[in-house]
Amino acid sequence: MLQIRDIIWRLLFIGCAAAIQVEITPTQGEISVGESKFFLCEVVGDAKDIDWYAPSGEKILPNRPDIFVSRSDETTSTLTIYHANVDSAGIYKCVAKNGDKEAQATVQVKIFQKITFESAPSPQEFSEGDDAEIVCDVISSPPPTLIWKHKGSKIQFAKDVRFKILDNGHLQIRSIKKTDEGMYNCEARVMARGEIDFRMIKVVVNVLPTIRARQSEVNATADVGSSALLACDADGFPEPTVTWAHNNVVLETGDKYSLNEDGSELVIKDVAKVDEGEYTCIAKNKAGEKAEEVSLNVFVQPKITYLNNQTAAEFDEQVTLTCEASGDPTPTISWSFENRVFAEGQQSLDRNIVVRSHARVSSLTLKNVQFTYAGQYLCTAGNSIGQDDQHMYLEVRYSPKIQGPVATYTWEGNAANISCEVEAHPGASVLWFRDGLQLPSANMTNTKIYNTPTASHLEVTPDSQYEFGSYNCTATNAMGTESKEFLLIQADVPSSPEIQGVEPFSSTAVVVFGEPDSMGGVPIIRYRVEWRLPGQQWTGREYDADDATSRITIAGLKPETTYEVKMSAINGKGESESCPASTFKTEPVLGEPSAPKLEVKVQKGGNSLKVNWIKQDDGGSPIMYYLVRYKARHASHWKPEIRIPNASEYVVLSGLDWNTEYEVHVVAVNQQGKSEPGTVSFRTATEPTTVPDAVDGSKDIEEGKAAFTKDESKEPIVEVRTEEEPVPNQEGGGPTEPNETTPLTEPDGKTVKDDSTKGETEVKNATAEVKTVPSEAPQANGNESKA
Predict the structure, then answer these.
(1) Pick from 165, 163, 264: which is nearest to 214 by CA?
(2) For residue 755, which phi and psi values (nearest 5 degrees)?
C-alpha cells in the first residue's frame, strides 16, 4: 500500500514540477468530551515549515497543555488534542511552506458529550408523606431521553398521577408511601448514536414513629422500697430509639433509674413522693420524633406522727385526745375504745363524746370525765392504700367504787367468802368492820382476810347465829373513800323440784322437771333421781346440775314395765325432800336404738372441740358401741370411722383446721342394728396470731391427759372418756377464784374440802381414758388409767 502511494506521489511530483501537496489523516474527527485524539499532517514535496492553526486562526504553538504539535520528520507533523472539551471543536488547518510555495489541508473536529451521570446517589431517603424528588442528573450531546422504571417495569405516569418527571429529569413522587420503597432505574438514551446507560437508585421511605403508653397513669406507693414501671411501645422505620425525660432532663440507667435494652421500659427505684409528676417517652428516627406523656401518681401510706398518753381526774370538765397523721391521699382518722368506734362527726347520745377533724389532725373530746373512760384508745389513720394504728392510754384518777354481791349465804360450820370488789385509781387500801370494830378482832377469831389487786375477800366460818349479819367494807385512796355493807345470811336446804312429765322408751325414760322454787340461798349442785317397780326398793343416781338442766335420762329399764320416779335437789346445805312420785310405763322393744342427741363445746385453743352425746332409747337391747365419723363440710370424703366403747359419752376432736366448718355423725349400735345418726355442725375458731404457751401442753402430759402425740399424718387426735369421768377444768393450772361457798384455807393452811367431793375423787381416780388417731382407729383400752 505504501509503495502504491509513493508511486502516486512521484508521478505528481514529476507532473507538477516540484509543487507541494498536504494531506491530513484522518480526514475528519469526532471526539467525546474528555477523550484525546491525534491528527497526522503529511507533506509531499520539500517543505521547510509545517504549521497547525486553531479554529480561531491562531497558530498553534508548541508545548500547549491541551493541544500539542510535534514534527516527527521533514514531511510529517502531528496535532494531538488532549482531554477534549466543547471548546476544542472546529476546523483545524495544516499549512506547509517552502519559500514562496505553500500548500494546506483542513480537518473538521467535532466534540460530543457521551451519556454521563453527574448525580444519581443511592440510596435516597425520604419521609413518608413527603413529596419525594428522586435525583438523577445526566448529560450528553445531544441531550438524552430519560426513562424511569420501578420493579423492572416502566412507570406509567398516566395510571398514577403521583408520579411525574420534572423538567430537570428528576422523578417526583407526591405523598410518598412505604409501598413506594424499592429500586428505581434511571435510564438515559441518545438515539443518534444508539447510546444507552442507566443507574439503579435505592429509594428508602422512612416512617415517622408512632408511640403508645401502656398506661397513661401509673400509681405507686412511696417509702416502702417499691419500684414503679413506666412503659411505652414505639413503631416506625427505621426502628426508632426511645428515651425518657422528666422535668426536661433525659434519664439514664443508674442508681435511681433503670432502662431496658430498647428503652421502652423505665423502672423508677425506691419510689418517693418527689418522683411524682409527668414523664415523657420520646421515640425518634430519621423521619422525626413523637412524644407521649405518662403520669406517675405517688401515694403515701398513712403514718401516725403524734399520739400521747393523757391523764385526767374523774369529774373533770373535759379531756381531749389528739392524733395527727400524714399520708397521701389525706388519711381519714377514727378512734375506737373497747367495742365502740368514733369517727368524724359522730357523738355519743349524751353528747359527752365529740370527734373533730381538720386536715391531718383529729381530736377526741371526752366531757364530764367518768372513771369508765380510762383505758386504751386506738387511733386509726387510713386511706385508699393502707392504714396505721397506734394506741394511747387515758389514765383517769378516781375514788374507790365498791362492787360485788351484797348477800352471801352459808351455814354454821361452813366457811364463806364475802367479796368486796374495788375499782380505784390509784389503788385503794381496804378495811373490814363488824359493829364498828376493825376485823379481824378478838371477838371474831373465825375470820380471815385475803386481798388481791382488785378485791378483798373476808372469809367467815360461822359457828353461831352471832356471825350472821352485816359486815362493812371501806376502801380509801388519795381521791376519796367509799364504804358498803355486806350481809352474811343463814342458808337452807332447797325446796323439792317438780316433775313435769316423763317421756318413756323401751329401756330408758326422760324425766322433765322444773327447778325448786327456793334454792336455799346457795346453788343447786346435784339432783337425785330415784325409780322403782311399785312396792319395791328405790334405785337412784345423782346427776350434776347446771343452769340448763331440765331433763334427765334414766337407763337400764325393762320394756313394757310400770315404774315410779321421784326427785330431790341438793345444795351445799343439804338435800331437799323428794317430790311426789310420778308413774310411767316403758314402751315395747323397738329394735334399733334411737339416734344420740349431740352437743358441741369448744375446747381451749379454738381448733379442738368436745362432742358430747346423750344416750336416748336403746331399743330394748344394750348399746354395744358407738360409731363416730366427721369431715370438713367442703370435703367430699369422711374421715375414717371411729369405734367408741358403749360406756363413753364424748370424743374430743383436736388439731382441726382453723376457721373451718365440720360435720359430725354419731351412730348407736345394739344387737338389733344401728340407729339413725345423731348429727351436729360447728365451725372452728380463727387461727390466733400468738403461739400458745407450751407449758400447758407439758402439764397435760404429766397429768395423763395426752396418751399420744400428734404424728406427721396431721390427722386430728380423738380423745375418748368414760361416762363417769368429770369434765376437767378447761382453763387448767391456774388458781380458782374464790366464791361465797368456797373456803380459801383452813387455819393450818390446807384447802378445805366438802364431803360431797370425796365421791368425785374416787371416781376420777378410777376413770379410764384413751386417745386415738382416727386414721389408725384403734379400739379404746379400758384398762389404761390416769397417772
Answers:
(1) 264
(2) -60, -25
